[in-house]
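Q: Got a minute? One more chain.
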Amino acid sequence: MKKWFILAVVFFSLAACGGQQSNSQSSNSTPVVRQPVSTPSVPLVTPHHKIGERVTASNWNITLDSVHTQASEVGYGGMLVTPTKAGMVFLEVAVRATNISTTEQTMEGYQFVLRGDDGTPYGANYEKPDVLVVAKVESGGPLKGQLVYDVPPSVHHYILRFSPDLLPTTSTVIWDLKV
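A: Always. Here it is, folded:
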């Protein structure tokens, strides 16, 4: 019986030492570092709209009805109006908008910015009749006018951006214009 007792003590001692060895190995082993799974980020891209599409931007529903170029036009009092820079033509964009807010809103020409597809900015021309400069529109009221820019006759693709606020926001709307 002593023999069985000694064998049991030896067995349990070895088992205990084996367990300690196992623990000492795991404490010396390199810990597993779990890295957070990242979801691929999708860049936010502002969609580009086309002539004739009704677009909502903040407090406005806006539609660009047409775009065309013109060398000159008869203005107020029968005077001929030409672009402010020699060699340029007018780029005219017909705009319709509706104030969809519950309060009076103001739309101003500077809220629209025109660039060539290469990024060149083009300034607005306010010499022509019916140009949208500043308009106060009551709640639910319509607005109709023209945006007019001096552009070179050799450029045929433009990007028009409308920002309802002073700084571009998520409400910024972009149209691709082709003439």
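A: DSSP finds one helix and 13 strands in the chain.
Q: Perfect, thanks.
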